[in-house]
Queue: 2 jobs
Job 1
Amino acid sequence: MTPADNLKGLHHIGIAVPSIAEALPRWLAMGLSLQSTDVVPTERVKVAVLIAGSTRIELLEPTSEDSPIAKFLANKGPGVHHLAFHVGDCQLQIDTLTTAGAALLDQAPRQGAHDCKVAFLHPKQLGGVLTELVEDPHGH
Ligand code: ZN
């Protein structure tokens, strides 16, 4: 399988917010619908999944001061945090990128929400954009 075969498209856009409760009404007013709200304890983040057609937006709220999202908000303020690409096989994409000399934050997939396997590339790899790979057993 080539990287092009493995890459299925954009999975979601992650947006850092200080408060999902405050941000949510504006996204609902835009016409997106709330699919789920979850807490991911390992990432110290609360995630609200918003859907519009095939587009998925994830609002990310820190659940503690040492959350990566809390650090992002302190440094850059609210806004786009990362892009996530849907891949068929997360480990394969990691191996392919590693062989190509790419800067990765994860050498192996970690467990994400909804039974997904996820891994992150270093922001310097793609022009300052933090990028996530998502292997999603549910498709999208
Ligand atoms: Zn994400």
Job 2
Amino acid sequence: MGSSNNISELAKQYGVTPSQVLSALQSLGVVHEGDEFLADSDELELIKDSLESQRGKKVLVVQDGATPRDIAQAIGVPPQDVVKNLMMKLKTMAQLTTSLKPDIIEKVAELYGCTLQWGVTEAPKPAAKPIVSRAKKVDEPAEVIRPPVVTIMGHVDHGKTSLLDYIRKANVADKEHGGITQHIGAYQAKLDQGLITFLDTPGHAAFTAMRARGAQVTDIAILVVAADDGIMPQTIEAIGHIKNAGVPMIVAVNKIDKGNANPDRVLMQLTEHEVVPEAYGGQIITCPVSAHTGEGVPHLLEMILLQAEVMELKANPKGEFKGIVIEAKLDKGRGPVATILVQEGTLKIGSNVVVGTASGKIKAMTDYLGERVNEAGPSMPVEILGLSEVPMAGEIVEVALDERAARNKASDRSDEIRKQLIAPKRKISLRDLRRQLDSDETKSLNLIVKADVQGSVEAVRGMLEKIQNEEVEVKIVYAGVGAITESDVLLASASDSIIVGFNVKPEGKSKCEAERAKVEIRAYTIIYELIEDIEAAVKGMLAPKFEEKYLGSVDIRATFKLTKAGFVAGCYVTDGMVKRGCLCRVDRAGERVYEGKIESLKHIKNDVREMSNGQECGIQFENWTGFKEGDKIEAYEMVQIMD
Ligand code: GDP
């Protein structure tokens, strides 16, 4: 039995390259599994002797036609590092899998301080390239390299849109399209070395919305920082989102064409947020660019492709289909339209799909050039038509066996969602109602928001959530894209909500259903009207405010007992008036002796409603008979006041 040892650790210990350690293993017939090998103590001694004799003398053992990746593995450095050095220091563009010419390999060896040794005799093939061959074995034959999916994030006005536009113009539209592309939420940039899919809704709203649904669409995030402005609040926010998602980041330091640009300051500021650029000894690639002049943009694109290569992004175009909704809207003429990004498999015209609670048969697909396509493979964004309702961004698209299966799956899901939404809401709503009745606690105005596009949903939601005061809370029970459906009415009825529609109307039977269930639907086309109405509703729900209103003053001049009615105060109204049932305070020699209600008011022996200044009357108080001659009564009432 041998012990487990590590190739890279030994290489480090003896100051040699991992390929030298492999050579030593090979010469003793010791096999290895990746970076690990098993050797007994004698074997380990021999290996160490061999390494000791080579200590400090780094030898790069490679074969003719080696690639940057082979070299990186032989030396024990990140593959990206070799490609970058080739590009920066040797002015040679190469991808990880490009076979290099011998003179270039020599230069690379020199660059890393290694003596070059052409591999076949002294370091036989399996030893020199073990990791590569191992990695290849793992590859699924059906898997192919797919383009990286890139999101651009950063502070407002730092040039996200400009950068996306520049790339779109320079690298997307081929000449036959006359530079015109369709805005479908994503596009692909075509470079000699490969394709890059850009999500072209910049900002992190979409990124987080998708992540909130558990969908990870982005492979690489580009953080745009304006060189004149430096790190700003949304830059920091974006860094947080990117790190949280565990997505590799490339920083594009934009606007370097500006006179006051200070890219170095940006790099330094980045380190303060634990984004350490290579220039500061970290791992983060930074690219100075100008979205105006285009300077540095090709380099940025190369870096994206390089990063993608290192990530070995793969997908199986023949596998089970999986896509993600990037954007969706309701088009007046075409019905629900969704842009989806293919993640696995291939989507074809006629496929039966399920997206969240929507289903449908794909009627048409259009790419970002506005061209009709019949199928879409991995990392390709396409706009699809044929869904039954507008899905939400971030929802997963799946293919079902047939139309019926798709419909059933979608309806199962909507039942499930409805159950989830209704069950807790109903309880909470009832309990809250009881609590509200029993106490002075916050009341809530429950709303269901429906709008034509995701952007409006978010805008309306954002504004509504700001309408709060101490007494009424606006609760958005559900917010989504599309017409007001029966299931919205159902949910509204169960959760005691009002439905507000922005640029959408009730469809099908939902209007009748709403009337039947007494659910209020309010449809608007002007956002401020919507907000004003809800504000008014909130005011209407405020607990009424009351104010004390003085009625009059009354003196008690005598006390007497009536046989039937009991003790009565004989009074004289000295000012204003007094009403039966009004509130009053009674003071005796400046001290309060009673606070309560005037229960009965009599004139002579008759009950009367009110008595005015200068009149005599008999008064009885609620639960109090302790009055005396000389007591002074102040009569008042509480009246509701409006804001
Ligand atoms: P976004 O809010 O991040 O999408 O920023 P925009 O792309 O809308 O750009 C904001 C402003 O900066 C616009 O006026 C652009 O013309 C300008 N801008 C963007 N990139 C550059 C650049 O590289 N150089 C210069 N000089 N201005 C730029």
